[in-house]
């Protein structure tokens, strides 16, 4: 969830910066630094340097989202790139929403089963343990009652 949230923020920041006529290399560096991840920041700095030099991007830098690097390297026009980045941010936000809904539903369910299962197991061991010990002693061939 954290990764998808950071990717969504990165895509949205890139789209906002590009829609306000910030140069692409500078926008990549600023947006990747603002996301809050060292890996994305270093990857964004490397990508910004490649874009500033005009080098083709064959492989995205490590830490930078490959989908966003591909979108930036594809050579779309600025309005089309902004639209694609906003849509990508929306998809990443939907992924975060689905993951949080899944956790909100299944975490209490799993914790309830684990905690109540543990309580039942401990209760059964405390109750049936001595009873089973008594039954074994009664059925042993050398049972002495004194």
Give short descriptive properties of this protein.
single chain; 146 residues; mainly alpha; 5 helices; 79% helix; rod-shaped
Could you describe the 3D structure shown?
By secondary structure, the chain is an all-alpha fold. Helix content is 79%, strand content 0%. It is built from 5 helices and no strands. The chain has helices at residues 2-19, 24-34, 38-53, 66-73, 78-139. The mean pLDDT is 88.
Overview in brief:
The protein has five helices and no strands.
Would you spell out the secondary-structure blueprint of this structure?
Elements: H1 2-19, H2 24-34, H3 38-53, H4 66-73, H5 78-139
| Order of secondary-structure elements | HHHHH
Helix content: over 70%
The residue ranges in which pLDDT falls below 50 over 5 or more consecutive positions are none
The span between the termini is 66 Å
Question: Class by helix and strand content?
Answer: mainly alpha
Number of strands: 0
**Strand fraction:** under 5%
């Amino acid at each position: 969830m954290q990764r998808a949230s950071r990717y969504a923020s990165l895509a949205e920041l890139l789209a906002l910066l590009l829609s306000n006529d910030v140069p692409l290399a500078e926008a990549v560096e600023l947006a990747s630094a603002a996301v809050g991840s060292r890996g994305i920041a270093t990857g964004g700095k490397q990508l910004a340097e490649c874009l500033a030099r005009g080098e083709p991007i064959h492989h995205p830098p490590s830490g930078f989202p490959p989908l966003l690097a591909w979108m930036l390297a594809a050579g779309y026009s600025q309005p089309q790139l902004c639209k694609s980045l906003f849509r990508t941010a929306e998809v990443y936000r939907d992924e975060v929403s689905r993951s949080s809904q899944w956790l909100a539903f299944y975490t209490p369910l799993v914790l309830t089963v684990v905690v109540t299962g543990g309580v039942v197991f401990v209760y059964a061991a405390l109750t049936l343990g001595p009873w089973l010990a008594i039954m074994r002693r009664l059925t042993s061939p050398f049972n002495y009652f004194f």
